[in-house]
């Protein structure tokens, strides 16, 4: 019996028409998130991870557009929504946590006002005092000390970590089915980062909320997620259970990426390095986008684009996956 | 303290004036306010080693980097470079001649390279500034050599910074730092603006260059894994004070100060999938209004009455220097 699928993305393609032709920032990306699952989306800058999140919640900035593909939330198409339907989706059914907690809060309103506004917008059935009660209990839930007084405080009176807690409270205010967290801890110090990750994990587990966690930090992915999708040049190169992707990566890019991360207990003299850097959107190579940087490149890699195929316990998009790994699970 | 330290910081302090403007201050009857970014920090860096300073934001690590290269003047204490006090007017002339021996790499390669200058000119600037070349041809030859050293093409010299990726720009910054044949390179978060795969390239390059030219690094970073990979010795800063100084191996295997322990426990690590991290209590205090005594005491599980009143000094224990009353009294 498979668990209920909350988010299902099929063949998502995001394009930016420009004067010099169409740039494909997200290219044929498919994945799904089950109820209560935390899916990590990891990649280097320019891999298209934030755009994937933005496309799901309808925040693509024009001229960016979803050119192909389907996004379904509990079976219901949510790509191409507009106006009122989109407003009901955002916040109510899909919550969002952005990287910078200072710019995602309005500096002119108190934290309490912002929470109460969000709650009463999505839950018009609640009375003003009930909405206030809920706002207070949310602040207590996310661990703001002296929450009762802090309702009347402005965002600038909070520290970075406390602000991010408020943003998480806002994202969860309407009890959404899915939370998209785009680099939620990147702007924070490590000691605070640990608190925020633990908080996000606990709250979503309590509520059964699914999470799409977008980050460049493999360490955060390792300890938070159930499954992880690795993006490269707008494509998923590998997706699978987090322990397998980290310890037994199949795709050459994932292998290189894991070797490039210095370990805390490591005695390694040199880090694995991947030559070159991520291609620009205007110059994504033919065939496998990774072939110019890959040690295993053959003619097939240059000519033809690999599709995601079963590898290990997940899947990877590469022509040269060790045959021993494919179909190992079937 | 060893006698052959290349750089020695002695009781270094730096306070910034963060008072309101005079009129506002007078009207509201407030006094001057200072933020002490660095207080009473002493350390030695021996030739050829990599000394790393780690800490969270506001711990004063970048301020120390800037003090060492002379971008800030110290409010107290001094920095001795190869026996010369860099701020002492008496040795100013002598130090000017030695100035080329310290170079710096900054965090943000997008801000540290002049967008209107060609890469070749950026790298050649220290050559002219320190009178290291006699003519243009000599400068050109040296620039080509430097570009090759950092694994760029000499033909890249005519390009502008915007034509390069972040990792390539950081290589250009390294080439510029190497131009004057320095002994010491102060690296302020050299890879925090870079992606991991590019970070690995830059860290490997920095290590190769260190072996090749016997460089001494002062590495500033908030990334403990990078520090673990690069450093010989590590100093941990908390709110402007050194709380622990130890050889890297010792520090990571056996952290003694409660803050160092907390910091290490908080780092997300690849090899611990699904591990529940020790959630740390509280946040770093406001540096304008420091807690009395040990600045870490409000977050410290071992704090007692003495910690709230006396500032702990560094004491030696098993090859590490730790500033903690609990460690000193054996209350760990």
UniProtKB/TrEMBL annotation, chain A:
<dbReference type="Pfam" id="PF08352">
    <property type="entry name" value="oligo_HPY"/>
</dbReference>
<dbReference type="InterPro" id="IPR017871">
    <property type="entry name" value="ABC_transporter-like_CS"/>
</dbReference>
<protein>
    <submittedName>
        <fullName>Methionine ABC transporter ATP-binding protein</fullName>
    </submittedName>
</protein>
<dbReference type="GO" id="GO:0016887">
    <property type="term" value="F:ATP hydrolysis activity"/>
</dbReference>
<dbReference type="InterPro" id="IPR003439">
    <property type="entry name" value="ABC_transporter-like_ATP-bd"/>
</dbReference>
<comment type="similarity">
    <text>Belongs to the ABC transporter superfamily.</text>
</comment>
<keyword id="KW-0547">Nucleotide-binding</keyword>
<keyword id="KW-0067">ATP-binding</keyword>
<dbReference type="GO" id="GO:0005886">
    <property type="term" value="C:plasma membrane"/>
</dbReference>
<dbReference type="GO" id="GO:0055085">
    <property type="term" value="P:transmembrane transport"/>
</dbReference>
<dbReference type="InterPro" id="IPR027417">
    <property type="entry name" value="P-loop_NTPase"/>
</dbReference>
<keyword id="KW-0472">Membrane</keyword>
<feature type="domain" description="ABC transporter">
    <location>
        <begin position="9"/>
        <end position="258"/>
    </location>
</feature>
<dbReference type="InterPro" id="IPR050388">
    <property type="entry name" value="ABC_Ni/Peptide_Import"/>
</dbReference>
<dbReference type="Pfam" id="PF00005">
    <property type="entry name" value="ABC_tran"/>
</dbReference>
<dbReference type="InterPro" id="IPR003593">
    <property type="entry name" value="AAA+_ATPase"/>
</dbReference>
<keyword id="KW-1003">Cell membrane</keyword>
<dbReference type="InterPro" id="IPR013563">
    <property type="entry name" value="Oligopep_ABC_C"/>
</dbReference>
<dbReference type="GO" id="GO:0005524">
    <property type="term" value="F:ATP binding"/>
</dbReference>
<dbReference type="GO" id="GO:0015833">
    <property type="term" value="P:peptide transport"/>
</dbReference>
<keyword id="KW-0813">Transport</keyword>
Automatic annotation (TrEMBL), chain B:
<keyword id="KW-0547">Nucleotide-binding</keyword>
<dbReference type="InterPro" id="IPR003593">
    <property type="entry name" value="AAA+_ATPase"/>
</dbReference>
<dbReference type="Pfam" id="PF00005">
    <property type="entry name" value="ABC_tran"/>
</dbReference>
<dbReference type="InterPro" id="IPR027417">
    <property type="entry name" value="P-loop_NTPase"/>
</dbReference>
<dbReference type="Pfam" id="PF08352">
    <property type="entry name" value="oligo_HPY"/>
</dbReference>
<protein>
    <submittedName>
        <fullName>ABC transporter ATP-binding protein</fullName>
    </submittedName>
</protein>
<dbReference type="GO" id="GO:0015833">
    <property type="term" value="P:peptide transport"/>
</dbReference>
<dbReference type="GO" id="GO:0055085">
    <property type="term" value="P:transmembrane transport"/>
</dbReference>
<dbReference type="GO" id="GO:0005886">
    <property type="term" value="C:plasma membrane"/>
</dbReference>
<dbReference type="GO" id="GO:0016887">
    <property type="term" value="F:ATP hydrolysis activity"/>
</dbReference>
<keyword id="KW-0067">ATP-binding</keyword>
<dbReference type="InterPro" id="IPR017871">
    <property type="entry name" value="ABC_transporter-like_CS"/>
</dbReference>
<dbReference type="InterPro" id="IPR003439">
    <property type="entry name" value="ABC_transporter-like_ATP-bd"/>
</dbReference>
<dbReference type="GO" id="GO:0005524">
    <property type="term" value="F:ATP binding"/>
</dbReference>
<dbReference type="InterPro" id="IPR013563">
    <property type="entry name" value="Oligopep_ABC_C"/>
</dbReference>
<dbReference type="InterPro" id="IPR050319">
    <property type="entry name" value="ABC_transp_ATP-bind"/>
</dbReference>
<feature type="domain" description="ABC transporter">
    <location>
        <begin position="7"/>
        <end position="264"/>
    </location>
</feature>
<comment type="similarity">
    <text>Belongs to the ABC transporter superfamily.</text>
</comment>
<keyword id="KW-0813">Transport</keyword>
